[in-house]
Amino acid sequence: MALSRQDIARSGLKLLNEVGLNGLTLRLIAADLGVKAPALYWHLKNKQELLDEMATQMYRDSAEERATPASLGEWDVVAHRARALRRMMLAYRDGGKVFSGTYLADLSLVGEHPLRRSIEAGLDEGRASRATFTVYCFVIGYVIEEQAVRPMPGEFDERYRETAGEAVLGDADVRFEDGLAMVLSGVRGWLETPGQPGSGTPV
């Protein structure tokens, strides 16, 4: 059987919903693919490379959902991509943890900067990237916390019932939208404020 890195990643994603991140091993994936574990090491050196490939496959599979109409305003594009990123991670048990801190193994998946028009109009690209990266980090962090309480749709970790308040137990979609609005408002204000580090304006 001729294996590819994508075959291994897809098997890992399938098993992720069954065993979670802690239970996922290259040996388990090898058994799912009907090969011996050493066969996988021709493609992946360790579990981190496996996670990098799985995260890349998640991102590749969600490309169509992240696509945005050209008519959308720049910040609407940022918000759209943030929501799509959350849905992508929520499709898998521990999806937030898998995606967090991984290396995108296929750089062709890196799309156009959502603030490209503003950058072309004079916005410092470094500041623009810092702003969008902050939104990206919020989404990943939110999903990791969200999945700690609700690992999969319909599941709930009862330990949180007595110790957590409405900020954790309330409607996850509403809380995400509130948080996204706060972060977007903050980064837009930061970009518009002169004298910030990286702005090119003396403090």
Give an overview of the whole structure.
With 203 residues, this protein is mainly alpha-helical. The chain contains 12 helices and no strands. α1 crosses α2, α1 (5-23) packs across α4 (47-61) and α6 (74-90) packs parallel to α9. The protein is globular, with a radius of gyration of 19 Å. The protein starts with a helix and ends in an 11-residue tail after the last helix. The mean pLDDT is 90.
How would the blueprint of this fold be written?
Layout lengths: L4 H19 L2 H8 L3 H4 L6 H15 L1 H4 L7 H17 L4 H5 L16 H5 L4 H25 L9 H5 L2 H4 L2 H21 L11
Helix pairs in contact: 1-2, 1-4, 6-9, 9-12
Features:
203 residues, 12 helices, mainly alpha
Classification by helices and strands: mainly alpha
**Individual helix count:** 12
Estimate the mean pLDDT confidence: 90
Strand content: under 5%
Task: Give unreliable regions as ranges.
Answer: none
N/C terminus separation = 62 Å
Largest beta-sheet characterization? none
Helix percent band: 55-70%
Number of strands: 0
| Oligomerization status of the protein chains | single chain
Question: Concise description?
Answer:
The protein is mainly alpha-helical and 203 residues long. Helix content is 65%, strand content 0%.
